[in-house]
Automatic annotation (TrEMBL):
Residues 380-525 form the Thiamine pyrophosphate enzyme TPP-binding domain. This is Thiamine pyrophosphate-binding protein. Gene3D superfamilies: 3.40.50.970, TPP-binding domain. Transmembrane segments: none annotated. The lineage of its organism: Bacteria, Pseudomonadati, Pseudomonadota, Alphaproteobacteria, Rhodobacterales.
């Protein structure tokens, strides 16, 4: 007997087919059929304590399996709770399917309780929005997957009416064929090769697009052949191991790092912008090179409409074949005879030393020294993230993940939970400021319920350190940035995990060593002084 499929089943099966094995959210009566369909399709549904955190847990899994995030939310307040993480997925280029329940079209004409236009809400922060229809369920499912996963990745919203989810539907096997990779040719390619051959001071800027195209091996071969030093955005850290002699580290938000990196970029006679999406970068990176005096080649999946920078040649092509075409027949010559890249590398090492006795730099250095090289890290937004992104050396893509485009607080803890769920064999550590941790502390209960054991490091200075620093820099009176001290270690114990407060590197080392062998999660409250970030970021 042929099984009768519901519209929700057709959608769920397409999501399973594309690799999804986990969904996160908080159900209401309007999404019960949807949750049932996901489960029957082989996609585990995990209950979070807030829809925003549910989406970040999904992102944590995505960084392990590459499949789109599934966020499930009921109508009204459930859907609205997820707006922040959906906006983050949009700006941070994360493929996500946002599935919201809604009342039927006829019912909403005479019923108003919790009813609002979800599609209007999500339109500014998604790539597309659909209302599920039983007759076109298979078409909508494939469209949603295709749009979410094509460059640049992002969220797609599907509103699922209550009765439509249960309506019989069919899957006709409609699947859009993926586009083939393209490479440049003709006069533009010849010009690019000429610029590369003539360059004596080349530098490469590498961004998130290169990570999403898995272009690491092609990048390494190209940069090594032509001996081109490179800078990455924070999200692209580790696409080539950061101990590589050509690597100058990450950039985007640290004025201290920019003090050394920007002069080198301005001195370059050739800038290769390779998958470089400037949405991660602070205003100081706006128009840092001059196309009138520097040759600039931009390789990206989308046309430049951001105007953060300009280029002399723009290639809307795939990175690996473009680099191969650019390098083919181009012999490398001597570069950077003045030794500037090596000098910048030394200066950055001195600017972000690993030998501080304590403070945020000491915390980061001790964590990097004690935790195994294969540790996966997540970072919340705040002053600690800027310092961490410069000091935390990555040997693989996505070794450190964060919200570096939207820069939203409260992401590190749930992303670490998702990362550990997807990779239980790897150590996972999250770094949060105390304010960001307080936003999402309830998700410690989710970590306990899922049986995962990440290490949650909290920089405890009872202040919004980055905002307080900016306040002082503008010579404004202190206001709205300081708060009471709280016992974060006790919170960890209260939710069924371990918790310890540390005030020096010796105590932190012991806490980390114990956490690595613990059966449950550990909250480590690292107490630092207010103002410890001064001069460090």
């Amino acid at each position: 007997m042929t099984e009768t499929l519901r519209a929700a089943d057709v959608l769920a099966r397409r999501l399973h087919e594309v690799g999804c094995r986990h969904a996160f959210g908080m159900p209401g009566g309007e999404v019960l059929t949807l949750v049932d369909a996901l489960t029957k399709a082989g996609i585990a549904f995990h209950l979070a304590k807030h829809e925003n955190c549910a989406g970040f847990m999904g992102e944590g899994v995505h960084h392990a399996d590459g499949a789109p995030v599934i966020l499930v939310a009921t109508l009204g307040p459930g859907a609205l709770n997820g707006v922040n993480v959906v906006a983050n997925a949009h700006q941070d280029r994360v493929p996500m399917l946002v599935l919201t329940g809604c009342v039927d079209a006829a019912e909403e004409q005479s019923y108003t309780h919790q009813v609002l236009d979800h599609r209007a809400v999500f339109a500014p922060v998604t790539k597309a929005s659909f209302r599920l229809d039983a007759e076109a369920a298979d078409l909508i499912a494939d469209k949603a997957v295709a749009i979410a996963t094509e460059p640049r990745n992002g969220p797609v919203h599907i509103d699922v009416p209550i009765s439509v989810a249960d309506t019989p539907a069919r899957d006709r096997g409609i699947r859009r064929a993926p586009a083939s990779a393209s490479a440049p040719s003709g006069e533009a390619l010849a010009q690019a090769r000429s610029w590369l051959s003539a360059s004596a001071r080349p530098v490469a800027m590498i961004g998130l697009d290169a990570l999403q195209e898995n272009a690491g091996p092609a990048l390494r071969a190209f940069l090594e052949k032509h001996r081109i030093p490179f800078v990455t955005s924070y999200k692209a850290k580790g696409i080539i191991p950061e101990d590589h002699p050509l690597c100058l580290g990450g950039a985007g938000l640290s004025p201290l790092a920019d003090k050394h990196l920007l002069p080198l970029v301005r001195e370059a006679d050739l800038v290769l912008s390779i998958g470089y999406d400037p949405i991660e970068m602070r205003p100081g990176w706006r128009n840092v090179w001059d196309v009138e005096t520097q040759n600039v080649i931009d390789i990206a999946p989308e046309a430049n409409t951001h105007y953060m920078h300009q280029a002399g040649l723009n290639f809307l092509t795939a990175i690996a074949p473009t680099l191969a075409a650019l390098s083919d027949g181009t012999d490398p010559g001597p570069v950077w005879s003045n030794g500037k890249p090596e000098a910048v590398k030394r200066a950055l090492s001195e600017a972000f030393p690993q030998d501080n006795d304590w403070g945020p730099a000491g915390v980061i250095a001790e964590c990097r020294a004690v935790l195994p090289p294969e540790t996966l890290a997540t970072a919340d937004s705040g002053a600690h993230r800027i310092l961490l992104s410069q000091m935390w050396e990555c040997s693989e893509p996505r070794g450190l993940v964060q919200s570096s485009a939207l820069c939203t607080m409260g992401c590190a803890v749930p992303m670490a939970i998702g990362r550990k769920l997807a990779r239980p064999d790897r150590p996972v550590v999250s770094f949060s400021g105390d304010a960001g941790f307080l936003m999402v502390a309830g998700e410690l209960s989710t970590a306990a319920e899922l049986g995962v054991a990440p290490v949650f490091v909290v920089f405890a200075d009872a202040s919004l350190a980055l905002i307080e620093l900016k306040q002082r820099q503008r010579q404004l009176a202190n206001g709205g940035v300081d708060f009471a001290e709280h016992d974060f270690a006790a919170m960890g114990r209260a939710f069924g995990g371990n918790g310890v407060t540390v005030t020096n590197r010796t105590e932190l080392r012991a806490a980390l060593q114990h956490a690595l062998t613990a059966d449950t999660f550990t909250v480590i409250s690292a107490v630092i002084d207010r103002g410890d970030y001064d001069g460090r970021i």
